[in-house]
Amino acid sequence: MTGKERREQLLEVGRSLFAERGFEATSIEEIALRAAVSKPVVYEHFGGKEGLYAVVIDREMQALMERITSTLTAGHPRVMLEQAAMALLTYIEEESDGFRILVRDSPVPSQTGSFSSLLNDIATQVEYILAGEFERRGFEEKLSAMYSQMLVGMVVLTGNWWLEVQSPPRDVVVAHLVNLAWNGLSGMESNPTLQLPS
């Protein structure tokens, strides 16, 4: 193997083990054993388990962000919501190991930040979409930041649940997510109050 091929092999082995066992439970010995190399080879390429993990995290976050941002092409906010939810669930379905790694809390600093910072980036894009809708409907634009966090959180938590059950099919899950989000937004009160007894 060339050095580049060996590096890619170690990344794939590490990605698989981190998804299966988590960062803490995965050892350099196990990575080297699965890759059929000695431990020094892993250290030579990544400086240790932390370096390997950081590269895996960076790649997953870039792949997910590119997948979501490249799909946001529609002009209508509802279709954009459908596109974003579909992109995330497609990533979860096709790259389940990557998603499992991302949703765990990383003990290792990453160049691209953490999963929560990635979600904040996505929420910022959603906030921009919501701000236009809020203005059009006469709602306070400053609340769009909070609502974007709610929408992104709803999609991510649903995706995490769906990863484990894999049912119903992805397009059905997206249709129901958008149904709840969109129809909830279309019937939203401009000044909601709680109905709880005082």
Helix/strand order: HHHHHHHHH
Describe the sheet with the most strands.
none
The secondary structure category is mainly alpha
Task: Tell me the strand percentage band.
Answer: under 5%
Alpha carbon gyration radius: 20 Å
Mean pLDDT: 83
pLDDT < 50 runs, ≥5 residues: none
Let me know the number of strands.
Answer: 0
Name the helicity range: over 70%
The number of helices is: 9
State the end-to-end distance: 70 Å
Can you tell me the overall shape? elongated
Write the layout of secondary structure elements.
Layout lengths: L2 H19 L6 H8 L3 H8 L2 H23 L5 H18 L1 H8 L11 H23 L6 H22 L4 H17 L12
Describe the structure.
- With 198 residues, the protein is an all-alpha fold.
- It has 9 helices and no strands.
- It has helices spanning 3-21, 28-35, 39-46, 49-71, 77-94, 96-103, 115-137, 144-165, 170-186.
- Helix 1 (3-21) packs across helix 4 (49-71), helix 1 packs across helix 6 and helix 5 crosses helix 6 (96-103).
Short key terms for the protein model shown above:
198 residues, single chain, 9 helices
What's the quick description here?
The chain has 198 residues and is mostly helical. The protein has helices spanning 3-21, 28-35, 39-46, 49-71, 77-94, 96-103, 115-137, 144-165, 170-186. It has nine helices and no strands.
